[in-house]
Write a structure and sequence with these properties.
Layout: H1 14-48, H2 52-72, E1 88-89, E2 102-107, H3 114-121, E3 135-140, E4 148-153, H4 159-167, E5 171-176, H5 188-208, E6 214-219, H6 222-225, H7 231-243, E7 254-257, H8 263-274
Parallel strand pairs: 2-4, 2-5, 5-6, 6-7
Antiparallel strand pairs: 1-3, 3-4
Length: about 280
Amino acid sequence: MCIIEAQNGGCMDKQWWADYRKGITASTNSTGGIVGLVSLGITAASAVISIPIVTIGGTVFLCASIVYVLSTGLPEKKRDASDCCGEKLALSDLDRIKLPVTRVALMGASRVGKTTLMDNLNAKVPDGSRTDSPYAMIVQLPGASKKYIAILDAAGQQFSQQFQITDSANALLIFVDHADSNTESMKPERLIEHSQFLEQLRRHIVNKGLRSLRVHILFNKKDLWNSGPDAVDLQSWFSEQIKLWDNLTNKPVTASIFSNWNTLDQTLLTNTISGW
């Protein structure tokens, strides 16, 4: 069986034919009513007026309708991941990438470091901007030859958006931190916010039957809290949170202490994602 490759031509792959069949079905459904009405009119006219041109006209119309359905049913041309690297895409645009890429959703509260990680993976200088709506971006992992992934991001303050990108993802990178500001001390209300979000996310995964997801949880901003007065309590809290994810998915949930500004941490995380 011939399978199409990412960069070269060759035989049509199974997904292309599946998309083509879907397109033909949709096109047929949208034109079927019109074709039916016109055909009924031509049939009635043929019964009343025995003129060959009426029959010929009906045949021409039917042939034109078939050509229209077959041509409009063609699936939209797909793009190579490398061609759209660094672009902001709608989630639906990911279906038009030639070969499937791993979809990694960045999860967590606002100001937890998701967008900074996105900028780092995309070799972009962080500008402090915030995410307002769900989107995807194709990035090539640093040091990974031809390894492209789709990063999915959404507004941290909108749980509904977070759950939306969860439904489109193959893997989750979940961020937690000790505070929403640059301080060494923890803010108890911040930990409560994380705990509540994680509980809702676990419930969503169970309700949606998303047990095939890969999950990695990052305790971000270690450059601040790990040398602060609450380091022991924070690590204990993080350990308890990890235990709540036991047996939630088919694959083991992993976790790490992380900083967006630590080169080694970024390398280790990249290696983890590369294995997905």
